[in-house]
Amino acid sequence: MVKNVIPVSYSEALDLLNERPFKIIAGGTDLMVQRRSWAQTPPKFSEDVLYIFNLEELKYIKEVDGYIVIGSTTPVEDVLKNKLTPNLLKAAISIMASPALRNMATIAGNIGNASPAGDTLPILYTLDAIIVLESIEGIRELPIKDVITGPGKHIIKQNEIIKELKLPISVFTNSAFEKVGGRKADAISKVSFTGAVNIKDNKVLDFRIAFGAVSATILRRKDLEEKYVGLTKDELIGKVDEIVADYDPFVRPIDDQRSNKEYRKTVALNLLRNFIETL
Amino acid sequence: MKDITTSVLKIDNEEKSKGSAIYVSDITIPGMYYAKTVRSTISKGKIQKITLPEMPENYTIVDYKDIPGKNIVRIIFEDQKIFAEDEVTYYGEPIMLVVGPDKLIIEELVKQIKIEYIEETPVFEYVNSAINYNFKKGDAKSAFENADKVIKYDYVTGYQEQLYIEPQGMVVDIEGDKVTLTGSLQCPYYVKNAVLSALDAKDSEVRVIQAVVGGAFGGKEEFPSLTTTQLAVAAKKIGKPIKMIYEREEDMEVTTKRHPSKINMEAAISKDKEILAFRANVGLDAGANIGLSGVVLSRALIACTGAYTIDDIEVNGDVFLTNTVPNGAYRGFGAPQMLFAVEMFMHHIAKEIDCDPLKLRLRYLSKQGDATSTQGTFNDPIIMNDMIKKAMKESDYKAKKIKYAKEDVYKGIGMSWFLHGCGFTGSGESTHINALVKLRKDKNDKVHILIAAVDMGQGIRTTMMKIVSQVLDIPLEQTVYDLPNTDLVPDSGPTVASRTIMIVGGLVARAAKQLKENWTPGEELTVSERYKQPEYIKWDEDNFVGDAYPAYSWGVNIVEVEVCPVTYQVTLQHVWSVYDVGKAIDERIIMGQADGGIMQGIGYGYLEVMNSKDGRIQQKNVTDYIIPTSVDSPPLDTYLMDNPYPLGPYGAKGAGELTLVGGAPAVALAIEEAIGKKIHKIPVTPEYIMELMKNGKN
User: Nearest Cβ partner of B103 from A40, A98, A257?
Assistant: First the structure.
């Protein structure tokens, strides 16, 4: 029989996780759909469930030592409304799902679910987010790209919980987030794009590109980005064909019931081109 | 006396907004069991062996061997089995029910049932014609022989899912010999007749009661006859009340949808750039059973010239059987497919002969007195010219058309013209339905409306009560319209085909007049009225000759869009609609129908993707099957014209389907203009727009 446990404190949650395996659920906006069942029967969890949405200790957004730190049970609607939240993240949340879901969904849930189409993930990759994992044994801080390893796969240990995420405060002179879904609201991405640059004194100091839903995990290539740092803005725009050609081999989407790979690839590269050409 | 069009509060507003309305899933009966369907997991083949687990006490399977009567869902064309016997013809075909008191145990038993098949090669192409209809008007053959030019285009339309918010559901109760079925349905007497046939029962042994219905759109026209017969058979076997509610995925995977179609159009063009004749060849994908598909095909074929009068036509159509989920009724019933093809074709002809599409279309626009596609007559005034002017003025159509053609923008504006035949096709009203309505005045002078029409959200309870109160000049509160129960109401026909207000409402108004003439306060009195076909309406069903419908409603839709050249996504900017529904019985109710209908029609045209792959529906939940949300919906401006129809109550004609049927061509034409490429299929998805922008023809 599956046990449903609601810890009263964060430390109790950590203790419980150390005792036996649990499925951790916060807002449940992905899990309750994935484990759906015949009406009036319990959701189909095969393991014990730890409900952490009520842990007020993990609901916070604060600025600490050059980072914006977001507690893992903070609903995305609260993140959206907070003035500390980076604009790019706000852009992603504002077109995420529907108002009802935004009051339940968490960014940590996007990480735990590890879908390549997760709405906030391209932003976390672009911002070099650091994920803070905690267990009774201690704290690990890992960059997002090392946490998620494939669709639905991550390296979070059985006794660990996502405590918070840390977003280094960054400066961008131009940034864009584009989500291409089946409709204007309440849709899963067919493809998404994030671009962010910092140009100072006509020199590209920082150049970041990320794509969602075009490969097994979010696509971000620091090696390619570095090629274009140090150029002038016009030089960067002049190299648009080369940039698109650089990303082309790494944009490897799939066919599914929501779209096809030709469309996803074409649009991903169009968005990249459009971002650079309109800088 | 007030103008009947003046809106009142819908009588079910309160119960629906409070949540107190009783839908079928809210119904529980003490000792009630549940049922789950065991379905075919292949598209075609023979059932070789079924291995059942050991059934615990109180758990039973129900299959074709338990049917006392015929193993056929009796509706119009009798080819659908209640349960598969030794062969299956589509993935998801029902084979048996597992029935018992605990859902978790039922699910476990369903998992343990092993069915072995000898698989056969399924057919998914349009090759196996089960019904062919063809007809002619004039002499298209010689027109094509003498033509200066023949223009040919092919059009393709996809599935559309009704996506009523409440899935299919039914509860059966049994007391002695009497079976009572309560559920979400559009046609109480279709269900009753189907159950009578399945149980081989006496008329008094079956009763059907409508629960509050959470949307239907045709999806609850014939499909509930399948689930109710299954449950009735189960109740007879087990002697217990049983409830069966489909989950969303089951509903989307196995219930009827709009027929996908392939339509070839040909026009004979003279030297003077006149359209001499049309040829239309229509293929509908029926899925694995014929069911209502022949009737859907009829409506499609009759609409082959849309809102235009073409003197010489040749029409051919087939219902093709494929090993896929059976398709069926959906708001518009064959007309949306055909009207998409006709409207696109008129524009494509205009392009080929280098003629202004508006001028070309106006030249052939139907007028009062013209012959219909089936050599009947448009008897009533047609006010399309005024409607087109109104729509063009409100939308600033001409200026935008010029502007968008000149500028280097991805904006477009499209306009569709259309008609919808009200009521059953052909002589269906008199030969098949023969509607009967009753009004009963009780001792307290309350007037009970006794009809089998179902309010599925379209407001028919409110509008019928308005008609009765208006005729009798009594307050609305003095009329009563309970949810239909076949033991209490006569068969006034199914709630389909934009017939309810015009046909049933017309009979109700006549009955009310009768009641008024014989009104004695404090005395009980029941009056009835039966449908009589107007004498001037003649129809030859075998040859498609005569008046296919007693009346027509007309409409104009204008849709303005912008297409993003980076993502190929379409943004709806604005929609303008002008409708002639005769007379609105309630303005706000019609406006509600109009807003829902046009978004359903536009969604069909650009957004709603449903595919079948290897015989299986790919989009089977509301995450994957995308319909427009309020964020996708632009401002919708709707104008109603007054053009009373003499035989309708207060002049009312059909309205329910009209508001859907022009949406797809209007949005497709707008996108065609925005991207400058010809569109041949719907939905016009971003994926298709990308293809067209890369390789499409101007």
Answer: A40
For residue B382, give the nearest of B367, B397, B364 by alpha carbon.
B367
Q: Which two tokens stand for residue B212?
A: 């509050």
**B131-184, pLDDT tens digit by residue?**
999 999 999 999 999 999 999 999 999 999 999 999 999 999 999 999 999 999
For tokens 């022009």, what's the residue?
B662
On whether the B428-530 domain is CATH 3.30.365.10, my answer is: yes
Q: What separation in angstroms does the CA of A164 have from each of B11, B207, B641?
A: 52, 60, 61
Backbone angles phi, psi at B337, to 5 degrees: -60, -50
Which helix (H) or strand (E) segment holds residue B150: the answer is: strand B149-157
Q: What is the pLDDT of residue B538?
A: 87
Query: Taking 90 as the threshold, does the pLDDT of residue B537 lie above it?
Result: no
Residues of chain A neighbouring B36 (CB-CB closer than 8 A): 38
Radius of gyration in angstroms for the set of CA atoms belonging to chain A, rounded to a whole number: 19
Q: Where are the domains of chain B?
A: 24-121+163-254, 261-425+545-695, 428-530
A-chain residues within 8 Å CB-CB of B624?
Answer: 257-258
The one-letter code for the residue type at B455 is D
Q: Are the beta carbons of B687 and A186 separated by less than 8 Å? A: no
DSSP-derived letter for residue B225 is H
Q: Does B1 score more than 80 pLDDT?
A: no
CA distance A225 to chain B (A): 22
Q: Which CATH number fits domain B24-121+163-254: 3.40.50.150, 2.60.120.1440, 3.30.70.270, 3.30.365.10?
A: 3.30.365.10
- Complex ipTM value: 0.96
* Amino acid (one-letter) located at B178: K
Interface check B36 vs A, CB under 8 A: yes
Coil/strand/helix, residue A138? strand
B7 at A interface, C-beta within 8 A: no
CATH code assigned to A4-168: 3.30.465.10
pLDDT in tens, B35-76: 999 999 999 999 999 999 999 999 999 999 999 999 999 988
Q: Chain A contacts of B606, Cβ < 8 Å?
A: none
pLDDT computed for residue B292 by the predictor = 96
A174-277: CATH topology is Enolase-like; domain 1 (3.30.390)
Q: What is the pTM of this model?
A: 0.97
Q: Where are the domains of chain A?
A: 4-168, 174-277
B252 touches A: beta carbon within 8 Å: no
Which stretches of chain A score pLDDT less than 50?
Answer: none
Which one of B103, B567, B690 has the shortest CB-CB distance to A38? Answer: B103
The tokens for B65 are 């061997």
Tell me if the domain spanning B261-425+545-695 has CATH number 3.30.365.10: yes
Mean pLDDT over B480-507 rounds to 97
Q: Which residues of A touch B568 (CB under 8 A)?
A: 263, 267
Nearest-CA residue of chain B relative to A259?
Answer: B687
| Interface-testing mutation among A32, A260, A266, with chain B (most B C-beta atoms within 10 A) | A266
B206: left (phi over 0), alpha (psi -120 to 50) or beta: beta
- Percent of chain B clearing pLDDT 70 (strictly above): 100
Q: Does B632 lie at the interface with A, CB-CB under 8 angstroms?
A: yes
Contact A180 B36 (CB under 8 A): no
* Sheet strands (E) in chain A: 4-5, 23-25, 49-51, 61-64, 67-71, 130-135, 138-143, 148-150, 153-154, 161-168, 174-181, 189-200, 203-212
Res. B533 pLDDT band, cuts 50 70 90: confident
